[in-house]
């Protein structure tokens, strides 16, 4: 476990050292959240309730979604592609820890730095706009559990996409495809209840909703306590499924490495 803690520490220090990446990513998410905030405010001026959401609920959702997005801003597909092209990936495979474990704890350390900064900034902004009314301790605790599980789901998805870099040099395209899919289907842009019936059923059968929509819905109270616990269990199941897919896909990708390496 000490080895993994060392990787987590490295990830935290790396996040602090390259904080400009985090700041620019947070700024981009802030612009998106600000645009969504004013768009929804304009909509709710003419319509009191949209698919069960009032302006008060939607206002909270936008802020919490912003928090979730900034907490999960890490991405490592392009870095993986660079290490493959340079041949440095072999050094990672020679280390006495599993490759995926090394990635996870390194990204966990980076996410810890990002979450700490984001929680303070977004928390102050949330309280200044929405106040503390409606915040319940049991929901905050469930939200934090769901947030951590959502990070595990996003890591699993990113890990699968990063393995695609073993088959293509276009890591930028792989990264952007994953970002578009994640932002749209996770609920980062709009709550999944706003999707039309058929598309909503498809999205609910995918793991993306566990990244943003589930934690947000738990915090703002649109899920009952029973539904919140059920959704958290679904998140845990998806982590297991993505882990299995990662193991199977890694066997294929590692075969490609041996072919290129001779």
Automatic annotation (TrEMBL):
Pfam families named among the record's database cross-references: ABC2_membrane_6
On whether Transmembrane helix is a keyword of this UniProt record, the answer is yes
Keywords (A to Z) from UniProt? Membrane, Transmembrane, Transmembrane helix
Task: State what protein this is by name.
Answer: ABC-2 family transporter protein
Signal peptide range: none
Query: To which species is this protein native?
Result: Blautia parvula
Q: Which PANTHER family match?
A: SLR1174 PROTEIN, SLR1174 PROTEIN-RELATED
Q: Where are the transmembrane segments?
A: 21-40, 103-129, 141-168, 180-199, 205-225, 232-250
